[in-house]
């Protein structure tokens, strides 16, 4: 059975090219919903800035990586700025990396 943790692990392959760290560690994955016995996944994610020039590329990568999970047929990757991302949302490892 597909779990949120499995999806998060897969999304570690999506790297913010401007920062060089994955979306999970950066705290940019806001929500994951698994439906239809794992065949459909909703991913709510954010960007470090609304002006991020690679937002479309990141959304495409979120979709591609989620669809790469066995059994997933469809994905809805939804960009959200609610709440607005801030560095406090990063994982402890990411904070340490950036000296926070």
TrEMBL record:
Domain of life: Bacteria
Residue ranges of domain MIP18 family-like in the record: 4-76
InterPro entries: Fe-S_Maturation_MIP18, FSCA_dom_sf, MIP18-like
Pfam families: FeS_assembly_P (PF01883)
Name used for this protein in its record: Metal-sulfur cluster assembly factor
Organism lineage string: Bacteria, Bacillati, Actinomycetota, Rubrobacteria, Rubrobacterales
């Amino acid at each position: 059975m597909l779990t949120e943790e499995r999806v998060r692990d897969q999304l570690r392959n999506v790297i913010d090219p401007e920062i060089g760290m994955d979306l999970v560690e950066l705290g940019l994955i806001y929500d994951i919903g698994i439906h239809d016995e794992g065949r459909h996944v909703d991913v709510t994610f954010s960007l470090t800035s609304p002006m991020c020039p690679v937002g479309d590329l990141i959304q495409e990568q979120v979709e591609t990586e989620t669809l790469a999970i066995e059994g997933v047929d469809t994905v809805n990757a939804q960009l959200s700025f609610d709440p607005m991302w801030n560095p406090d949302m990063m994982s402890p490892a990411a904070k340490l990396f950036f000296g926070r």
